[in-house]
Amino acid sequence: MHRLSQALCASVLLLVGCGSGTIYRGGDGAPTDGLASVDAAADGTVGPGPDAAPGIDATPEPDAAPGPDAQTTGVVPPIGGASGGAGGSTAPSGAWASAGGVDYLIIVPSGYSEAVPNRLMIVYSGTEGAQTMTNNLLQVAGPYGLGDVIFAVLDGVTYYGNGAAGATVLNDVRTRYNVDNDRTFLLSESAGTSAGLQLGLSLRQSYFAAYWANDVNAQAAPTANAASLGFAPWGNAGPGGDFVDANAIVAGMVGAGYRLPADAPYSGPGASTHGDPQQFLAAIAFFNGKSRL
What we know:
Blueprint: E1 2-4, H1 11-14, E2 22-25, E3 36-39, E4 91-99, E5 102-108, E6 118-124, H2 130-140, E7 150-154, H3 163-176, E8 179-189, H4 193-203, E9 210-214, H5 226-229, E10 234-238, H6 243-255, H7 277-287
Parallel strand pairs: 6-7, 6-8, 8-9, 9-10
Antiparallel strand pairs: 1-2, 2-3, 4-5, 5-7
C-alpha cells in the first residue's frame, strides 16, 4: 500500500515547481488502521518519472480505434465494440456512487462524451483507502496520458478479497457510461490484491486489456489462456518487496499467453519496498496505449 500526499509533487512529471512532499505507507496490505510516514526525496519530489525507471513499458503506444472491421466473434465483450451505456454524468473531481450495495468513487473527465467509446480503469486501493487513491489518480492521470480515462475506485479494505464487488462496479459503469470494450484496465494494490486477482484473472478476465497487480501480498494464475479468451491481455506485477508472489503471478500470466513487458515482474525503482511511490508511478505508466487488439 502506498500513499502519495494530496499535494503530489514531481517536477519531472508536472513540469512545475511544488512544495515539499510526504509519502505515506502502511504495512503488509492486510486491513489495518496503522500508518507510518516517510519523507519523500530530499528535493521534495516523489521520484523519477517513467522514463527513469528501467524496464517498464512507459512509452505511450497508439490506441487502436475500435470499429466494425475489428469485430471478433466469441469474445466477451465483443472486440471492436463498446458498452453503449448512457445516463451517467461527469465527475471530474471524483464522486461517490453505489451499485448493488457496493460503494465506490468514480472519476469521469469533464470531456466525457457518450458519442465515443471511453477508456475505463477499475481500481482496488490499498489501506490508504478509496478517497486517497482517488486523489492520487486525479494528480497523475493527466501527466501519464490517462486524462481521458474513467476511474472507478473501490476501497481495498472494505472489499478485502471481494472480487465480486469489482464485477458489480464494472457492470454499473458499463451500463451508465459508453465504455470501450478493448481499453478497459484493472489496477489493484496491497490490501486490494486478492480481490483484484479474483476479478482480473477469473471473474471478469476477458473484460480487461491490461492488469497490473501492485504491492502484491497474494498470488493466483489466470483461469483462461489467451487462446480461449480470443486475445492476449497485457499484465505485470509490482512486488513491493514480495518477489515470491510477484514472480508467481507473472509466471501464471506467461503460462496463459499474456503480453508482458521485458521487466516482469517489475524490478525498477521501488520494487523492493512496499508502498514506494515510484513503483506506483510505473504501474500508472504501464496502462497508456494498452488495448485488447
